[in-house]
Protein: ABC transporter ATP-binding protein/permease
Organism: Aneurinibacillus thermoaerophilus
Amino acid sequence: MKTEQQHSHKASQILWRLLKENRKFVSWWFVLLVFTLVTTLLISSIPLVVKEIIDQALLKNNTALLFQLLCLLFSIYLVHILLEGVKTYIQTLVGQRAVAIFRLRLFRKILSLPAAFYDRHPTGDILNRMEGDINVVDFLTSRLLFLSFSQIMMMMYSLGMMAYLDWRLFLVSAVLFPTVYAVQMYFGKKIKQKTLQLRTFASGIFTATQESIIGIRFIQEMGRRLFVGTRYIKSLRSVIRQQLHLARFSVFASAAMSGNVIFMLLISYGLGGYFVTQDLLTLGTLIAFNTYIEKLYSSLTVASTYWIEMQRAAASVERLYWLLDQPSLSRDGQRLERLQGHIVFRDVSFHYEGKQQTLEDITFDIQPATTTAIVGASGSGKSTLLSLIMGHYPVAKGNIFIDGIPLSSLSLTSLRKKIGVVSQQPFFFLATIRENLQLVKREATDEELYEVLEEVGLGGWVKELPNGLDTMVGERGLQLSGGQRQKLALSRVILQNPDIIILDEATAFLDNLSEEQIKRLLRSRFFGKTIVMVAHRLSMVREADQVIMIENGRICAQGTHEYLFATSLSYQALWKDEVSAFT
Ligand SMILES: Nc1ncnc2c1ncn2[C@@H]1O[C@H](COP(=O)(O)OP(=O)(O)OP(=O)(O)O)[C@@H](O)[C@H]1O
Ligand SMILES: [Mg+2]
């Protein structure tokens, strides 16, 4: 019980925050409130007109009055429809704007979250929040409050009119209100629980679909379709089962709830009918009274579903705020206009969250305008070391200095603009070759683009494409070959013209000819820049001024290639196969 209260307290806090953040819509809310007030009053006054029709017009054979009252009734409907139309338009305007603003804030947030966040949280979950949960913002900022408000008003109005029409009948009904309320609340809560369960099952389908699309090649190659299909069918089954269960329960619940109304109406018609026969009550009053009873209960039912809806929506908004409140990468810190490219690691240790030490006591000094090769077995921590240079993760121990300034006091956003990266899996947008290149230099002309493409050995290929620079590269660049992707990423770095260049196995997919081109690049275009590259090929390592060898997260050898080859056994072992292949 306590947690329930705490939860609802929390829900109100969350909703309050949402309203506060959307306070720019407050004048629209005021307009909506007035509209709601007027439409509710209009619709609630209809039984009174009907009462007059029966008592004054029909029972007294007054056709002139009947006509007037019917005209009044018609005008009420007309004005009501008009107001509702305008209200709906304003609601859409407010709701959709609020959603768009919230979306934009979330989008900015996901762009600013650190790499460590994405290591911990699966993409599906983030997408689910941004695409699924966001929709309640529309409902909450434009509808829910006014809907609830109008239902509560309707209830108050109905109660007031019942008391006004006949206080004896009102007192008898009043005794029964608490039980009716209890029944309504009980079933409401049950339906909420069951709906939530249904959503959990439904998200199972979502996950199964998403995973299957991403892993489609593996699934088809391995012939695992059967396995995936079975899992999918299982999720479908549980959803259907839960839906049927919910349907059965809803029938039962609505029977119980409408049973309430019928019970009340029976009592009211019984007692009220007796009053009418005794001339203690007019027929029109009795009919109006019972209409208000029905209105009261329908409002109560609707209001209780809104209450449940509000709880559910608050849970969704909480999920959105969770994402929005994640700490962003800091934009503060010293900005450097140009980097010399002096990189120093001093006793740096690092581990990924919840994992054991990945890098331990790393100390090295990379002088400006030199080329450094990082070598080591797979999983030894080479890529991790590169991501530390870019400040993707804070280090646990030790210090990193760029141009003599601690990395922690530099503005990371400004630092990264000065670093060019070709990673193991370079990223491209679902856009054309031109757009993907112009990302780093908006004003680059076609000649300039072809020039850099030529330098990495892609010029001829792009020229021969039917659409040339306007060729789409496919999602994540998947329509390109591995080598083309790396070359394109390289050309992007040339355009970017950074001060430090980081190459993570940039030649892994390239043939010997392309490798020659890259080497030429290192000597010409990238001359005078600080280059840090992870390399698996001896020919690339030979280009470096110094080599750092990593073994299980520690530096095991450091120096020029010739020096290491002459002194380090493990370094010799690293090249054993390649050297014997040449000799
Ligand atoms: N985002 C991550 N979260 C947790 N652990 C990670 C993450 N990335 C890498 N690791 C782990 O850290 C260790 C070092 O990985 P890293 O990618 O630096 O190796 P590498 O030397 O670049 O290997 P390779 O030559 O295969 O690219 C590995 O054991 C890996 O499992
Ligand atoms: Mg790596």
Notes: The first helix runs from residue 2 to 21.
